[in-house]
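Batch 3, record 17
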Amino acid sequence: KAGVTQTPRYLIKTRGQQVTLSCSPISGHRSVSWYQQTPGQGLQFLFEYFSETQRNKGNFPGRFSGRQFSNSRSEMNVSTLELGDSALYLCASSEGNPTFATDTQYFGPGTRLTVL
Amino acid sequence: SQELEQSPQSLIVQEGKNLTINCTSSKTLYGLYWYKQKYGEGLIFLMMLQKGGEEKSHEKITAKLDEKKQQSSLHITASQPSHAGIYLCGADTGNYQLIWGAGTKLIIKP
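Prediction for the assembled complex:
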């Protein structure tokens, strides 16, 4: 099976702009999670979508939003970009079991976002 | 303080030597994941441990879960340059999202 794919791989934006990142999960996986990774804060959970519904949400401002389509592909959007939004954004897919203890996440290569 | 502490933060090991990375949770562990990351890339799944006392191995990497201590260790035997990277542990503490350690950067000296 093909792995998780993310597009674009690299992105440069300026403050105030908005950005949309895309994630295609492994075939058959219904859950998609998004993470932000920075050197200072490490890996932080943004949100998780399952069957087109947001199931869990991390502690990020409302500028960060996402959605999932019927084919399980997901997009995340960041509006009014700030310098601090520069990070590696990772998407992970899993089968979608309700407990993580039985639901391994598989990660994509990430999108490197730079905000100038 | 971090809910999931990883130690050490970084490690430089001579090729061929063994090493251990630890991951300790301040909360009850229901599952523990180990991933490896090359700089600036995605995370590669290594192993998942569920039960106390569980031990899993893949090639030269062995991970154990000590439920009582709420701790997991990752042991690499006879390290190789291909083992270099950042090792991250992620824990299921029953809160509907994984919490993550800060990572251990491993450098292998030839």
